[in-house]
Amino acid sequence: MEILQDKELVRKKYIKLTDDAKNNFKNREYEEAEKQSSEACKLIKSNDDAIIIYGRAVLSRICKEFKSHELNVLVIGDIMLDRAFRGLPATDLAVGRHNTVTNNIYMLKNKESETNTLGGVGYLGYAFLPMVENVIMIGTIGSDCEGHILKEICDGKRGYDGTILKNENDINKKIKFLPVIGDKTITTTKIYFFDESITEKGDKAIRFDREDIKIMREEQNLLKDKIIKAFDSIIEEHKLQDNSGINKSTISCIVIDDYEKGTITEDIIEYISTTAVENNIKVYVDPKYEWDKFKKCDIEAIIPNRKECKEGLKTELPVQASLDEYPQISEFVIKMDSDGAYFFDKGKSRHHVKPYGENDDASDVGCGTIFDAYFITSMLCNNSLPESVFLANYAAGLMTMKQLGQIVTPEDIIKNVTHEVDYFIKNKYLIESLLIK
């Protein structure tokens, strides 16, 4: 009888905690809701109600707190222009068809169906904008119209959708862009055509790449000096020194986004790493396939996708031996596309965060970049590694519902988690074992 009474007391306490947590979440008191749902989870294990409210509260709390941190992020890497066109196959009557034209001819839907947006490291800088105080960016462009468009977007003369603004004040936040211009360099441009007759949203594209990596690499020595000069000017501008004489900086972190187009070389990485150590700045890296250039560098976290990890470490899912090859990298996080993400704790144990959603056919364009921005910002705000990956994985999932050139904002996450259930249930074990304090 006494045991039954104890169980009833526990049940009543659990119900009160979850009800209070739901009310606090509704009133945007996320931290209090997180604490109450955490206590409820400890009372009755694997109970979905408490798990769901805890998941909603922790993601909302992190997004809300971004605004209280004045972060300055410096991003360096290969910048690109993403050009998107949307339309439908033309009828034979609508166009004159020459004998040499054997494939379909497409026609744009309207003027608004053509957009120019930031790509590569430019898109990463844009993804950071809603979360941090300032974004500073260094990237290589050519003296061509595509490079000019990129600069106009960053300078606020165009919107981030590439449209020309009537008033410069129409754009709220600008990226401070230090363009490195190569005399022969062609501005890397990704051209997407979305055939809206294939799917309702037109989310599958034909892509054309406008670039010449050979020319970029021929100019690397000249470009390297220009990149280092731009980098040094930013470091000097943001340098501080405390009473002990230790160098500090108002730069919160440096993010290296390497697409192996020619901007990021081993010399530049070593120079950035050395300077960052001297000024107590954390370095994050989204690599491509050549990882040897990172072995001598102090890196807070490396954030590859599945293919980059397989090429860089010669294994899809790293083991102790492969991680030990990079002793100066503190954290390993692997973006696994539709399989979610993996991260490794200090003991090198692997943890899996299951994906948001179930649509394997969803477009993954931009998802990795959104993941990077949310993961890094969360870490800079002193959230734990599991919390930061959990948030970034959810943000990347929301990106599958966006179009090319759009981003996921903290407000998007706070709005969506209000109704989210599946993501938290799928990650129940992770929440109970790693997130609940």
From TrEMBL:
GO molecular function: heptose 7-phosphate kinase activity; heptose-1-phosphate adenylyltransferase activity
Pfam families hit by this protein: PfkB (PF00294)
SUPFAM superfamilies cross-referenced by the UniProt entry: Ribokinase-like (SSF53613)
Spans through the membrane: none
PANTHER family documented for this protein: BIFUNCTIONAL PROTEIN HLDE
Domain Carbohydrate kinase PfkB: 265-407
Domain of life assignment: Archaea
Protein name per Swiss-Prot or TrEMBL: Carbohydrate kinase PfkB domain-containing protein
Entry GO terms, CC: cytosol
Originating species: Methanosarcina spelaei
